[in-house]
Design brief:
The protein is of the alpha/beta class and 330 residues long. Helices cover 59% and strands 8% of the residues. Helix 5 crosses helix 6 (156-166), helix 6 (156-166) packs antiparallel against helix 9 and helix 11 (234-253) packs antiparallel against helix 14.
Length: 330
């Protein structure tokens, strides 16, 4: 049995085990092995197989010596769903893998098919973790790493703005990073991300709110006018403003503590605790009250209580930005 642990850097090891449910990361493991194989042998034969394509006996055929002695990459997707008989074939192969064949097993992890997972690990397979990214902080780390991998520099604010704008889909985040690095020279900052990606209504409204609660009235008004011109609903803006000010009020009245503890107490993700802490520096309790009243008036205005929703929003944005500076200006 191949009990020697394969180095993480050995892309052409006999067995690569990719464990997790993040499709982009699983695909990248496959792409890396295929690229390494084809760099060694341009005629590498690649077989990408699903459980229904890998029947009992199929693996023996696929790994039999070839007259042409060609290199092969065999990719088995959703290995946890293989039939019991096929799993026996794979386990037998793991005991005596064939030279010049790279077997890539993609396994979701968990209890299903755990025997195969254990067997691959025992055989010394090179293992790559491909977990689903469920937390905003994990997506932020992913974006930063994408920029580093492409040899480009992006500010922390730009990375956060990209996550806020794109959401949780790693493929979309990776695509956005690739587009920005292709289109933009120099360091990528928040303004660049804004030009490309804040056309999405929800992200755009929170962009306005962030600038307003930080006391950046001119920038908030500019973002507001652009957003309204692109069709963002006014109610999304008042909602984002209210959420931003309430978060400051909650955090300012909370007991001190670590972000993780405060996150549990206030029902916010830890990354947001850090952001709100930065935003609340100029705020006072009176400022929070004044801002919430102004937002309530604007909300009534955009829902039919006034003749000019745009003016109502501008007044609210200015009021929030002034409230954000009460401690500094007082």
């Amino acid at each position: 049995m191949a009990t020697r642990k394969t180095s993480p850097d050995d892309l052409l090891g006999p067995v690569t085990l990719a464990v997790g449910q993040e499709d982009l990361l699983l695909d990248r493991v496959v792409q890396a092995v295929v690229a390494a194989a084809r760099a060694t042998d341009a005629d590498t034969d690649v077989r990408d197989l699903t459980p229904d394509q890998l029947q009992p006996g199929s693996l023996v055929e696929l790994t039999s010596p070839s007259l042409f002695a060609e290199r092969k990459v065999l990719v088995v997707r959703n290995a946890q769903d293989l039939s019991a008989d096929t799993i026996k074939d794979v386990k037998a192969y793991l005991e005596d893998p064939v030279e010049d064949i790279s077997l890539v097993l993609l396994h979701a992890g968990g209890a299903k098919g755990k025997g195969l997972l254990d067997a691959a690990r025992k055989a010394g397979a090179r293992e790559v973790a491909c977990p689903k990214t469920t937390k905003p902080a994990e997506r932020l780390t992913f974006v930063r790493q994408e920029f580093r991998t492409l040899g480009r520099s992006a500010t922390p604010e730009a990375c956060q703005a990209l996550v806020d704008s794109i959401g949780s889909d790693l493929r979309e985040l990776a695509s956005a990073v690739a587009q920005l690095t292709s289109d933009v020279d120099g360091t990528i900052d928040e303004a660049v991300v804004g030009r490309y990606y804040t056309g999405r209504a929800e992200a755009s409204s929170f962009n306005i709110a962030d600038r307003a609660v930080e006391g950046r009235a001119a920038e908030a008004l500019e973002a507001l006018r652009w957003s309204l011109s692109t069709g963002v609903a006014p109610v999304l803006v008042t909602s984002a403003l209210a959420q931003g000010v309430r978060a400051i009020g909650k955090l300012s009245s909370a007991r001190g503590g670590r972000p993780a503890d405060l996150a549990r107490e206030l029902g916010m993700p830890p990354w947001k605790i850090d952001r709100v802490r930065q935003q609340m520096r100029g705020w006072t309790p009176d400022g929070v009250s004044l801002a919430l009243r102004a937002i309530a008036e604007a909300d009534a205005g955009v829902k039919g209580g006034g003749d000019d929703p745009e003016y109502a929003l501008e007044k609210a944005v200015v009021a929030v930005a002034r409230a954000a500076r009460m401690r500094r200006d007082g």
